[in-house]
Amino acid sequence: MDIKETQRIAMKTSVVSIIGNLLLSVFKLIAGLVASSSAMVSDAVHSASDVFSTVIVMIGVKVSSKEADDDHPYGHERFEAIASGLLSMVLAVIGFEIGRKGVVTLVSGEYESLSVPGVLALVAAIVSIIGKEAMFWYTRANAKKIRSTALMADAWHHRSDALSSVGALIGIAFAMCGWPVMDSVASIVICLFILKAAVDIYKESLNRLVDKSADPELMDSIRTEILSVEGVEGVDDLKTRLFGNRMFVDVEIAVNGTLTLESSHDIAEAVHLRIEEVFPDTKHCMVHVNPTER
């Protein structure tokens, strides 16, 4: 998939996210005000904040898709990892705030004085869960399709909003039944889920910024593919490093030392082309040739 198509899919997904979040925010805000539900009003604000995170994704994808230039000869893919790192921090703040409010309310006992919300707030919470979960799966599918870490982070932001709405649903339902304390309990549990997702996203973005090697399984697949190229007698060294949502491969192959320079070069070129063809995440494969006989 070329850069233009990747960028088109990312931008289309982001626009859908923004429109969906704006519509959900307005609906939940109206429902919260009409049904006297502070939980739903807070949830509406949370959905509105997702627009900001999606804008970060759009900027990250746009910059990372730029061609290499004199200042960045290896490309700009790492900007997408930076964008996903920023999103993980936004997620962490949201999760912490949800948990903090739950703990404060639980300790202070303020939930006893909360007004009983109306049925509209319950309906809004259900619509929010369905809508945000649908946005999660839609964004996740496209993130996997174009191998975008920033878009995947935004997908998990949608999931965090769905979890927030689950907390609102539980709180509203129990408040209507006379047990408003469960709203705070649910908020604390949801906080832990969101923080776990934030940590995972941050670790992934960090790995793509510090030249982490590819997974052992992928390394084995690359080695096998190299050895399958005619003329390659061995793999003396193999290194990979993640670069944003792409990967660099550096390999030293062993070939018959009696071959001409041109023949050795042809084998190296065959390895280079094979790796970049079979493993589309490869940004570039550098091949060094070692003779088996001197």
How are the SSEs placed, and which strands pair?
Layout: H1 3-34, H2 38-64, H3 78-108, H4 119-146, H5 149-177, H6 181-207, H7 216-227, E1 234-243, E2 246-255, H8 261-278, E3 282-291
Helix pairs in contact: 1-2, 1-4, 2-3, 2-5, 3-5, 3-6, 4-5, 5-6
Describe this structure in words.
It is a single chain. The mean pLDDT is 83. The protein has helices at 3-34, 38-64, 78-108, 119-146, 149-177, 181-207, 216-227, 261-278, and strands at 234-243, 246-255, 282-291. It has 8 helices and 3 strands; from the N terminus they run αααααααββαβ. Helix 1 (3-34) runs antiparallel to helix 2, helix 3 (78-108) runs parallel beside helix 5 and helix 4 runs antiparallel to helix 5. It is elongated and about 85 Å long. The chain is mostly helical. A 3-stranded mixed β-sheet has the order 1-2-3, covered by helices on one side. The longest helix is centred in the first third of the chain and has 32 residues, at 3-34.
Give the helix/strand class: mainly alpha
Strand content: 5-15%
Supply Rg. 25 Å
Oligomeric description of these chains: single chain
Strand order of the largest sheet: 1-2-3
Summarize the biggest pleated sheet.
Answer: 3 strands, mixed
Residue stretches low in confidence (pLDDT < 50, at least 5 long) are none
- Distance from first to last alpha carbon: 43 Å
- Element order: H for helix, E for strand: HHHHHHHEEHE
- Counting DSSP E segments of at least 2 residues, the number of strands comes to 3
Q: Helical content, roughly? A: 55-70%
Mean pLDDT: 83
What is the overall number of helices? Answer: 8
Shape: elongated
